[in-house]
Amino acid sequence: MNEADLLKLINEQPFGIAEFTAKSGHYLFFNEKERLLRCLSRHQLQAVCVFDLFDEDERDTLKKLFAQCLKSSAKQAHFFDYKKGNRYFQMRLVISDNGNIISTLTDTTDTHTLNASYLVNQEYIKCLNDAVIAANIGCWDFYPQEQRIVANAAWVTQKKYKDEDFRTSNELFADVVDGLTRWASLVHPDDLDATVELIEKHLNGDSDIYEAQFRMKSGDGEWIWIHDVGKVFQRDKDGVAIRMNGVHLDITKARKLEAEIDWVSMTDPLTGLLNRRKFESLFDASLRETVKNNKIFGFLFLDVDHFKKYNDIYGHQAGDDLLVAVGKVLKQSLRRSGDHCFRLGGEEFGIVFNTDDKQSAISFSELVKKNIESLFIPHKTNTASEYVTVSMGLVTEQDYKVNDLSRIYKEADELLYKSKENGRNILSCN
Question: Which of 59, 183, 209, 248 is the most buried (most CB within 10 A)?
Fold first, then answer.
């Protein structure tokens, strides 16, 4: 997907998307839905600080959430619920890899209305049911002492199952066959324990509300993302939870969009390789993979020989085409799912990989170098060959020594420089 198509997709989303500076709260980016929900023109939104859109109490709360985001990981979300006039909204805040705040803004008025109406009377819920079905909102009651779940049809059908295969009747609310056991069988195994822990925490009174995001298997075999929210509304005299109500929404499209945004921010637009930011963030994951598999950690740092001269002679378009060709060779060279290649800047590239031993790492690196030279791209000012070549620095270490990215990068850089000093088109290793 190109940048124009991605921006079009972002602007078509039914929720606001924005990026703020972490300290001042000024807008760096926003889609059209964000502007509409804020009821401001593009010019006004570009000039405003998000904190100034709220009263003093709400402003202080939002600033605290911004501060919490800065202290948390990129995967941890913080939620800010507020009311504007007669509408309810929720901001979901996460820290991006560049230290800014990414936000999604959702109008939650319908959900608030639904929950409030349920507490008033059952008849009003019945009146709202058509709207709930149209919005494809799954509604559920959970009776923990009985391990029983009562749900509406949308709870089932939004996951592409037949209602009659899941519920005991086609009434507005009906028992889910096998209740909690059935639900647990659909949740992704990697998400189940964490979700159950959040439910139990709320049932025990350790949280004001239950909220979770997890994957569930749909009727067509695909995994969909669910945003699940609930609250205990009935306890016995001893404080034991008797009844918990909630709703869940299919947020699969929103998660895919987040992945697209992440891909854009972590990818070099010219070569399609991962960029330096992603390189730094993947280091820990590569280390864990190395330790897990009892392998040798390898980092190959390479640089196109006399690239400036190549640009001067053949032009910048030819230079770009050369970088794309080198990037393609690197992609094709990867052998394992845990191996990654990067464009680290200008004509510099890197490969992070696991291997069985140092000699295998050397053989792999030599093969990459040979494959690049075998492109047979003419380079008449290259002192090492009549064709385009690369110089390389290779660092290999046992898993227990791999703990400092900056040290490894510096060592690889020194080895690369050594290759250049010794005539280029050379691999130097530690």
Answer: 248
